[in-house]
Automatic annotation (TrEMBL):
Transmembrane segments: none annotated. The keyword Oxidoreductase applies. GO terms for molecular function: glucose 1-dehydrogenase [NAD(P)+] activity. Residues 11-191 form the Ketoreductase domain. This is Glucose 1-dehydrogenase. The keyword Oxidoreductase applies. Belongs to the short-chain dehydrogenases/reductases (SDR) family. Pfam families: adh_short_C2 (PF13561). Its EC number is 1.1.1.47.
């Protein structure tokens, strides 16, 4: 009985940036748990290829869509296409993200705007776009991919830290506004996970040593170690959890 709470049979999940890294791992995991999935990328070929791989390996329906999630019109079209294809959207994972590492005085305005638009504006646009569908269903799970750096800071991450901190606050506001419609909104906050986004850090001996020394478990996390958290947050198991931030960081923020 208890394991039934984690099944996603009959659910439809939309994962932005779902063609690589954590996004792909999460999309695959949700499909394995029973959900039909939509994955997005700015590149149509990558989105369709990822969807095809997920469908073939899980025997679930999967759709790949090309979209720039920082552009409202494209986000609205993405949601409309998803509903047309599957009839509903039960789970939204705002995963698309970017990091630019520079000291504040060297941060050009274009780079700052790129990080803020991708990491904070896009989740707002996507959440706003699915609101009508989820409210009419009186059901929804919105999961925003924040970061441990949404609550702590590191040098040269001014844009990233502020965008992820803002995303945690947006999560709380949406949780309060949408609770009457049985829509929960939570933030998943990974720490140092060995993904493409962190390659530049892992390949720098000094930076890598700094990270390892600050992770209580003494190693980088593996992408698949996020699966348990995302299945929990997307399923009935988390039905009384909203406005929360779940940190999966190997113990970094416990210090």
């Amino acid at each position: 009985m208890s394991l039934e709470l984690f099944k996603l049979d009959g659910r439809v999940a939309l994962i932005t940036g779902g063609t690589r890294g954590l996004g792909y791992v999460m999309a695959q995991a949700l499909a394995e748990a029973g959900a039909d999935v939509i994955v997005t990328s700015r590149e149509k070929e990558k989105a369709e290829a990822a969807a095809r791989e997920i469908a073939e390996s899980t025997d679930r329906r999967a759709l790949g869509l090309a979209v720039d999630v920082t552009i409202a019109e494209q986000v609205e079209a993405m949601v409309a296409d998803s509903v047309q294809a599957f009839g509903r959207i039960d789970i939204l994972i705002n995963n698309a993200g970017i990091n630019v590492r520079k000291p504040i005085e060297d941060f050009d305005e274009a780079s700052w705007d790129l990080v803020q638009n991708t990491n904070l504006k896009a989740p707002y646009l996507c959440a706003r776009a699915v609101a009508k569908t989820m409210k009419s269903q009186r059901y929804g799970r919105v999961i925003n991919l924040s970061s441990m750096l949404g609550s702590i800071a590191l040098p040269e991450r001014g844009a990233y830290c502020s965008s992820k901190g803002g995303l945690i606050q947006l999560t709380k506001v949406l949780a309060l506004e949408w609770a009457p419609y049985n829509i929960t909104v939570n933030a998943l906050c990974p720490g140092p996970i060995a993904t493409e986004l962190n390659t530049v850090v892992m390949n720098n001996p000094e930076a890598n040593r700094f990270f390892i020394e600050n992770i209580a478990l003494g190693r980088w996390g593996r992408p698949e170690e996020i699966i348990g958290a995302i299945i929990y947050m997307a399923s009935e198991a988390s039905s009384f959890m909203t406005g929360a931030s779940m940190v999966v960081d190997g113990g970094w923020t416990a210090r």
